[in-house]
Design goal:
CATH superfamily: Flagellar protein FliS
Number of domains: 1
Distance between the termini: 34 Å
Low-confidence stretches: 130-138
Number of helices: 7
CATH architecture: Up-down Bundle
Number of strands: 0
Mean pLDDT: 89
Shape: flat
Structural class: mainly alpha
CATH topology: Four Helix Bundle (Hemerythrin (Met), subunit A)
Amino acid sequence: MNPYTLYQQQPVPSWTRIDMLLALFDGGIARCEQALAAMERQERRTARNLLVKARLIVLGLASGVVPDGDRVTTTLLQLYEYAQHALGQGSVEDVRGALNVLRILREGFQKIRDEAVDLERRGLIPPISSTATLQTLA
């Protein structure tokens, strides 16, 4: 069979919104942990680069929140703002604080994953149209 035809027949990976959020949190958490390890080894340039990547991921998470004045969305934006600021400060204590926020938020989203997937499959939450943001940020 023609290799191009085989390529076209490959299944397209389908992400749910919640799975993309969890992947972004995983990426942010991993970058923070790696930055802390680099700080311990006195590898400042590596740590700084990892913190920049973590900040980009946090910005990506924040950009997906619609600021409609709802208490939950306002709180999420405030937590993302805190994490963004803490990562920008770059001290071990600040990075640990941001890491703690990201872990807690990820845990919360993980707890509602099954319900979110069900809502998306039933059409009550619109599906993702593109994974370009995840690929860019990760």
